[in-house]
Design goal:
Length: 259
């Protein structure tokens, strides 16, 4: 399927590895010119070289902290009129809420709620003027089924979800959609770090716990960043113009509910 986005421009946050990288790869294959950002220059440049090897769209890198005003300004200077925005940030650390002070909570809210909102604020009016825009927020399956040790993520991402529920109904008439893509267990560094925390807490063997977690999923495995990126690319397509304000779960059937 031709997604109709060849030649479009995209900003993809936290794209040096994991799910953000998967999204960048898929969009570049569709001919989208992507601007990717992450904090570590060396990792970011290595990722850019990998993605360029696929052919397709151009890849521009901006090494920055996207959670700061300076970082956002640098990304928007590199791509001032994006057609596509993929919001993503490393999830806050797992743990016990009794150990989290105000500074830790504010950092989580800054990264996983306010940064996406500020980026949307910077780009959405231009998208509406041009009559095309696709915004995808990478959140978490924890928005639907909270994970006890991920209280920081549960709270901050739920706040973003509520904000998007209202805004996405205001932009769609101008062909600007805003959706949340909710990953469950994917084969990323972040997920493996969370498994390690759980294994350490339980005094269990890490390798054995990882195998059990994969086997317990109805799919019998973890998802791949490539699968996630392909779903994201479809949400950014011309064909997805009638999909907005949705929380789209991608978890291999892990969530047991009907709704």
């Amino acid at each position: 399927m031709d997604l109709g986005i060849n030649g479009k421009k995209a900003i993809i946050c936290a794209a040096s590895k994991g799910l953000g990288k998967g999204c960048a790869e898929s969009l570049v294959r569709e001919g989208v010119d992507v601007t990717i950002c992450a904090r570590t220059p060396e990792t970011l440049e290595a990722t850019a070289e990998e993605i360029r090897a696929f052919g397709g769209g151009a890849v521009t890198t901006v090494a920055c902290d996207i959670t700061t005003p300076e970082g956002r300004a640098a990304v928007l200077e590199a791509c001032p009129e994006p057609d596509i925005l993929v919001n993503n940030a490393g999830g806050p650390p797992p743990g016990d809420f009794r150990d989290w002070d105000r500074d830790i909570w504010i950092a989580a809210v800054d990264a996983n709620m306010l940064t996406p909102i500020f980026l949307i604020k910077d780009v959405v009016d231009g998208m509406m003027d041009r009559k095309f825009g696709r915004i995808v927020n990478i959140t978490s399956s924890a928005v639907k089924a909270p994970i006890e040790i991920l209280g920081l993520s549960n709270g901050a991402r739920a706040g973003l979800t509520g904000f998007i529920a209202g805004l996405s109904r205001k932009t769609v008439a101008a062909n600007v959609t805003i959706n949340n893509l909710l990953p469950g267990p994917f084969d990323t560094e972040r997920m493996h770090a969370n498994i390690k925390v759980a294994a350490d807490k339980a005094g269990a063997d890490l390798e054995e716990m990882t195998k059990k977690k994969a086997a317990s999923n109805p799919a019998g495995r973890f998802g791949t960043p490539h699968e996630f990126g392909e779903y994201c690319a479809f949400l950014c397509s011309e064909q997805a113009g009638y999909v907005t304000g949705q929380n789209l779960l991608m978890d291999g059937g892990n969530y047991p509910g009907t709704f």
